[in-house]
Amino acid sequence: MENTMKGHKPTKNQLSVPATEASNRPSRRSGFERENGAGPCGNSTAKGGDSIPFQGIPSHAAGPEPTHSKTMRLTRQQLIQIEAHLSARDHAVLQAIRKYRFLTSTQIGNLYITACSTKTSKTRQQNLLLQRLGGHGLIRPLARRVGGAGGGSTVQVWYLTEAGQRLLTLNDPGEHPRKRFNEPSALFLEHTLAIAECAVQLTCLCRESEDLTLELADTEPSCWRKYRDDNRVCYLKPDLFVITSYDGYEDRWFIEMDLGSESPAQVVEKCNAYLRYYYTGIEQKATEMFPLVVWIVKDKTRKESLKTYIRESLKGQPKMFLVITPDELEPMLRQYIETKELCYLKANASYGFYGQTVGQIIQQIAGDLQVDTGAIADTGYAIPSLYEEDQSCLDIIQSAVQQTLLNTGNIYVFYDDGNGLALQQPADMMSDVLIGENSLLLDYTYKTDIDAQTYNSIKLARPNEETGHADVVIAQDSATIGQWGLLQLYQTVDGDVNTAQMEDQAAASLKYYNRRLRTLSVSSLGVPGLRAGMMVLMKVPGLGDISLDQYVLLEKVSHTWQNDVHTMDFETMAI
Predict the structure, then answer these.
(1) DSSP 3-state of 560
(2) At what angle do helices 264-278 and 300-313 cross, to 10 degrees?
(3) CA nearest neighbour of 366 among 378, 384, 349
(4) CA within 20 to 30 Å of 280's CA: 94, 116, 211, 340, which one?
(5) pLDDT band per the 50, 70, 90 thresholds, residue 95
(6) Is the pTM value of this prediction over 0.85?
(7) Are 508 and 408 in contact (CB under 8 A)?
(8) CATH code for residues 210-337
(9) Beta strands in 27-89 (DSSP E)
């Protein structure tokens, strides 16, 4: 039993936006590559690693003196003439600068100068491109430069002029004109360029990869989400919304660029905003998944600080936040982030356990994967032996839980309690919620049968190397055999299990399976926080062959929000 918040879904279409399309988003495959030849540059700058200083242009000029004075407003006819001489790549650069507000020379080069063999030739092509657009008065550099990556040489920062804005809207007269340009503050500029750098790295990584695809990189304000909270209109404002696909599956990400200027408390407040939006269900209804929220920080010290603060402040909440450094961006896209970051148990492993409880098995696996643990109940039952080879860690733990059920008759729920991996009995997870004909219940479907998971005879066999035959233990109920016929469950046990242990396991399994299987599927008004593995009190008189008045164990729970109405659907374990 488990709750699934974030998953993957197969991508049906590999979106490709040509550079000439005025879609306000960059293409993951440059439309101008055919113009200058295909193939990525053979240097690390294509992944945003090094900064290429922009040379040959004075800091207060955009290249050669334009034909038209900077103070003179270009007429529509002049803009039309200029546009006629622009290439598809020129248009793509203008659209990218409009989209990201500011771009450095290096970022523009990494995005649009791809057909080159050396850094020198790349820098030369980059200079010519910017000189040409600057010479037309369509872009202009800021008066101040910014430092290159890793403390390298300073680089020019470019923005779209009023003429550049008007040129891009020549065929869209209804669009509002660009506001008067004001020199940005240092902090605003740093944050804006950090967002752009993330988008550039994503574009370059996916462009150069055979298995990664960038489907969408959406910036502010088009990536914002509108929702209602306590009858107030609210906006969730991520820095970036990104869709990528890897190995045939689609992943969605809300990205926040952290410069270390906000306190941990401010970061947690932003996390709470994401949680409020998550609980509206708007995103899940539209796309069947909720994006993972990724904070990209400058260094490991900040990373560990935020991780600890978020974990301690949001205990019991869905694990939907990830904190990484820039060098972990590519591993994240390929889902190779350390298991402890998201409590993934998908990694395969081989284990042999002898005389250990399921709680001890969970703690050993968690320790090996450096995953946190929460409340773990003591089952009191030591599994004689459990050997699993090349199985996922999740399947290994579930196998141990199943062994405990078969040998004790007790159900245990394995889940993430917000602090880490946890194991509890349903009785320790009882809700005070009552669901019945006069309380929350909207509709239900009740089923009863003996065709699935009902057995009145348990036969266990243990291999015996001395005799060459299996040692057999049988536990059965003659009364239900006479009523239903023989319904036998046959299982083998390890050679390390003695006869007394086999008899105990057979008796416990018979106690659990020797019943008519009754299941219930329910639709009701929603209860926030209700999840699989919990127990709720249900009262439904005249439910088929019984009158239901007892606690039931929830096997699956799904929540839906529509038009501010919260409903849920759930299925129960055997009643």
Answers:
(1) strand
(2) 50
(3) 349
(4) 340
(5) very high
(6) no
(7) yes
(8) 3.40.1350
(9) none
Structure tokens at 291: 């994006």
CATH architecture of 33-183: Orthogonal Bundle (1.10)
Q: Helices in 37-177 by DSSP H: which ranges?
A: 76-84, 88-100, 105-112, 119-135, 162-168
* CATH code 1.10.3720.10 for 427-450+516-572: no
Could you give phi then psi for residue 355, rounded to 5 degrees? 65, 35
pLDDT digits (tens, 9 = 90+) for 377-397: 999 999 888 888 888 888 899
Angstrom distance (rounded) from CA 546 to CA 448: 10
Single-letter amino acid, residue 274 = Y
Which residue is associated with the tokens 């008066």?
A: 143
The sign one gets for the Cα dihedral 446, 447, 448, 454 is negative
User: Look-up: residue for tokens 């579930």?
Assistant: 398
Is the bond preceding residue 221 a cis peptide, omega within 30 degrees? Answer: yes
Q: Hey, what are 504's tokens?
A: 């105990």
Report the C-alpha gap between 75 and 82 in whole angstroms: 11
Domain 343-419 fold is Phage tail protein beta-alpha-beta fold (3.55.50)
The encoded tokens of residue 529 equal: 């926080």
Measuring CA to CA, how many Å separate 19 from each of 22, 31, 120, 197, 372? Answer: 8, 5, 25, 19, 46
